[in-house]
Amino acid sequence: MDKEVLDRALQEIREYYSSQGMAAKLGFGRRPAVLVIDFQKGITDPSRPAGCNLDREIENTTILLKKARHKDIPVFFFALGGYRESLVDGGLLVKKVPLLQDFKGESEHIEIDERLNLQPGEMVIVKKYASCFFGTSLASTLTVLGIDTVIITGCITSGCIRATANDALQYGFRPIIPRECVGDRARIPHEVNLMDIQARCGDVLPTEQVMDYFDSL
To answer: So which residues are the catalytic ones?
Structure first.
């Protein structure tokens, strides 16, 4: 689809959503954490069967992480997979998305991309499904830490990013998505889902604005 046509269509939908009373601003809370979702070798390496090019998004996230670490903001990494050989713990997701069948056990596919510079003490949570909250201890861990805002980075926008933003809202955390720090396999689902996240469950903001928020803490 032509870029101008897509942009025009998205703007028309945004205006319609706004007229219907959607897309209100949540704003930042007082205590953030950064979630880095599925920036793992099996997805960020284009040479692998399930891989795609997310170089720009990884670079932007690396810059954001540097600021977060300087401010002692908690960082959580997530990887999709770690399934049993039988794939029984992947349930219907693995049936629906067969490319995940290689994401078993301690496969290299689920290792965090080295470019993110994982630090000692930063938690890596292996999840079986799209949302970082589903079947994990994330919600209780954030609550214990007094977190009220989650800065959501990573991939894929139309899958795990959207699912996590939706669950974050439902658990009472403010979902903030730095636009330049999330990516998808194709532009149309990426843009459409960012628009819909903004309308329904989170604030999609320029990364620079999130960095300014970190500086204000």
So the answer is: 160
